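User: For a reading group we're discussing how well predicted structures match intuition. Take Nucleoid-associated protein. Before you show the prediction, I'll give you the sequence so everyone sees exactly what went in.
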Amino acid sequence: MPIQRSIVHLIDKQPDGQPATLHARNSALADSSVVEHLLDELNDSYNAKQKAWGFFNADRVTYPFSQWLGQYLDGEEDFVALTRQAAEHLKTLMEGNNLSVGGHVLFAHYSHGDSDYLAIALLHHSEGVGVTDDLDVTPARQLDLGQLHLAARIDLTDWRGTEPSRHYVSFIKGKGGKRIADYFRDFIGCEEGVDAPSETRALLKAFSDYVESEDFAEEQAREKTETLIDYANHQARTGQSITLDELSELVDDQKPKAFYDYIRNQDYGLAAEIPPDRRTLHQFRRFTGRANGLSVSFESHLLGSQVEYDETRDQLIIHQIPTSLRDQIKRRRE
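Assistant: Thanks. Here is the predicted 3D structure of Nucleoid-associated protein, as structure tokens, for the group to look at:
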């Protein structure tokens, strides 16, 4: 993950209504294994968080960050000036939010795969204990990336491409309440453009419909489900979007365009790339059982809706029986 430029500034602010103070660094950080490790840890923590996805608001007067970022990418402003200006703007927005707390602000311009990204994160410390070379016990402070609450990532390549998506900006959804996260979203100037949970649910619904329409054998259906989940979770862990044509090839290497064409022909309204939602993916697993000539299999998210379990009677109640199964039963009864 090559780092092109990175820097850290400090915003000193307490949630007491007092003015904040910016302590700005005057030069970019030197390349080092420590900085690389920090960015790796930051990305791991960020990818595990629940995020919102969107794009830059067109109002560059109210939300000027995207204009400054564009000037940097066009070579009109250097990285240190960009980040200092941005940190000053963030400090001002913090002062208007009494619940906000200052911290170290990391800016990192880096490459991953074929894309360039800018990561921005507000970092805090945790107090620990260390041991010196003389074997004395001493207090030790370290960045607490496990408590990452305010961060964003911008896919610069997508944003500056000929047909940018509506999800080239992502940011962590605040756990401490919407008001705390709002000022950071406004700092980035992000307008939410994609509902990742809804998009992921639509993809999983399309996949379930596809499996049913193709009437795969149970083992095939299970394998294809595992392929989809493994791929989608990998994309989520690495902060990448689900690409429909790539997924289609993985689902069926003998007919690599079959699933992709099915989605397009059925018009599920899905974009070519979808930001994955890990919580939704976690709910999508298959329950499978076979005994005495009876085979039952269904996705776990259907339990409680299309499939109910009566524990007292030890019975499954299936609603909306698949058309093909219903037709077979009717023909048998004629």
